[in-house]
Amino acid sequence: MAAVVVAFALPGAAQAATTITSNSTGTNNGYFYSFWEQSSGATMTLGSGSNYSLTWNTAAQNVVAGTGWNPGTTNTVSYSGTWNCNGNCYLSLYGWTTNPLIEWYIVDNYGNYNPSSGATKLGSVTSDGSTYDLYKTTRVNAPSIEGTATFDQYWAVRQAKRTGGTITVANIFNAWKSLGLNLGTPNYEILATEGYQSSGSSDITVTSGGGSGGGTTPPPSGGGSGSGCSATFTNSSDWGSGFTGSVAVKNTGSSSINGWTVKLTFPGNQTVTSLWNGSYTQSGNTVTVKNASNNGSLAAGADTSFGFNAGYSGGNGAPTVSCTAG
Questions:
Q1: 97, 185 in Cβ contact below 8 A?
Q2: According to the model, what pLDDT value does residue 252 have?
Q3: Is 194 a catalytic residue?
Q4: Does the model's pTM come out above 0.70?
C-alpha cells in the first residue's frame, strides 16, 4: 500500500487566493486547511470560501492537501469540482482521531491503484448511491499527528467512483462501529487530494450539509428535566429499489424515560413498507416512529433499536433524524 502521510505543520492563517508551496496548516475564510508534501513538486492555492486547487508532479513524491474542519464532525459533507489523476492518487474525505489514534479515509475516487489492495475486506455499507467496501490496516512506526507511532487505518472505498456529491459521514462511521472499528476524539477532517509518485490536479469546494450527518441528533430541548434521547440511522442493505434501515435509540438524559418518538425525514420518495420493534405512520416524506410496548422504558444511558423495510425510486439519501423522549 502506498505510504500514508500527514502534515507536520506550523499553524498559520491564509487569505483568499493564497498560494502555498511549503508544509503548513491553518485557517482560510473560516475553514481549516492542510498541505503536506514529501519533496518539492506541488502547489496549493486557497480560493474563496472553502475552495482549494492543487497541482502536483512526481517530484513531490507524496502530497496530501485539502480543506475542511478542525475538529471534524459526523455532519454530512458535500463537495464539487474537478479531479485529474495520472497514476496513484486518491480523492477522499480524510481525518484523524485520538484516544485511540486512528487515521481514516472515505475514498470517493482513485487512480490506477485501489488503496484497499492487499487488505482484507471486513464488510460493506450502501450510502449515497453506491456501496463502500470497508477495510482496516495497521501502520507501524509511521508518521502521525502524534509523531512516529503505530496506529490503525480505517478505509471505506466507494465502488462507483465519483468526483462530487454528498457523503453521509454518519453512515460510514456507524458501519465501521458495527465491525468493532471504533473512532476516538475527532481531530481534523478535510476533503483531501492525495498523490503518490504521480501527477495531477484538482479544484475542490467543500461544504457541510448541516445537521449531524443525517443520522444522529442531540437531545431536544424541552424534553423535561434530565431527559433526552438521540437516534442514529444506518442503511443496512440496499438493493436498488428498496432498502433495510435500522435506527439506534439512546437515552442521553440523566433519568429514565418511559417512551420515545423518532422522526425520519427522507430527501426523496422513500416509503416504509414494514417496521419492527415500534409503530409508525408516514405523511409525505416524514416517518414518525413510536416505541413498542416492550422497548419504551430506557434507563439513563441505555439504548434500543428498531428496523424497517422501505421502497424508493431514484436516489436514496439518508434521512434527517430527530428523537423526543416521553
A1: yes
A2: 81
A3: yes
A4: no
